[in-house]
Amino acid sequence: MEGTDGRRRLVFVAVVVVLAAIGIYLTMLGGGDGESTPEAAATRRNAPASTVVPVLPSQVASTPSGEFDVYAYLPLGRDELAAAADLARRFVGAYGTYTYADPVARVDRVRRFATAEFGDELTRSLTAPALTQHDSTEQTVSDGSAKVTSIRDMTVGSVVFVVDSIQRITSTAGERDQTDSYAVTVMKLGSDWRVYDMQPADAGQDGDTSP
To answer: Over the range 155-170, which residues count as b (16 or more CB within 10 Å of their CB) and which as e?
Structure first.
């Protein structure tokens, strides 16, 4: 009988030991600190902290909302720039319109657009004997027009426009079209504009308006 009681006590102790071991295992598996295993705990401790990537502003230019007034950033307003461009266009058109029979009329026509000094220069060049003799011999008649293609330089008192001259020329050799490009400097005199200079566009007119 005592042997039987001894065996029962041994079995009871064994059961208690097993249950205690299971309890310890479960405690480690689902402990209050949230770490299921030592390996998992180490992994979480070594994991890098989450970072917030800053949002950088876009490097691509965008059109601002509302109406953008480019003239607010220029030395001349819309009306002044339009008046200067129109003068340059009409001057080049007049320069390209002439007839061999009346070179003086050509001079009078272009002088109306020019400063006094440049008008004198135009008179000398357009009435030069070599030019008038050539036009008379060839019976040259030209019908000119022009268009402004770009702005090369701009200040408060002057603008350099690139202007294309288109001429339909009739002579003893027949008819032909001729296109030339000029850099035309216009300067402001009081409330008006006048042509100060004209050079071939590829000559690099810099728009200097000093005397």
So the answer is: eeebbbbbbbbbbebe
In order along its 211 residues, the chain shows pLDDT tens digits of 555 555 555 545 454 444 555 555 444 554 444 445 555 555 555 555 556 666 666 666 666 666 777 778 888 888 999 999 999 999 999 999 999 999 999 999 999 999 999 999 999 999 999 999 999 999 999 999 999 999 999 998 999 999 999 999 999 999 999 999 999 999 999 889 999 999 999 975 554 444 4
Q: Where are the beta strands (DSSP E) in 58-157?
A: 98-99, 141-154
Report the 10 Å Cβ neighbour count for 87. 20
- The domain ranges of the chain are 2-44, 71-203
Comparing C-alpha atoms, which of 167, 119, 122 is closest to residue 143?
167
**Half-sphere exposure (Cβ direction) of 130: Cα atoms closer than 13 Å:** 2
CATH topology (fold) of 71-203:
Nuclear Transport Factor 2; Chain: A, (3.10.450)
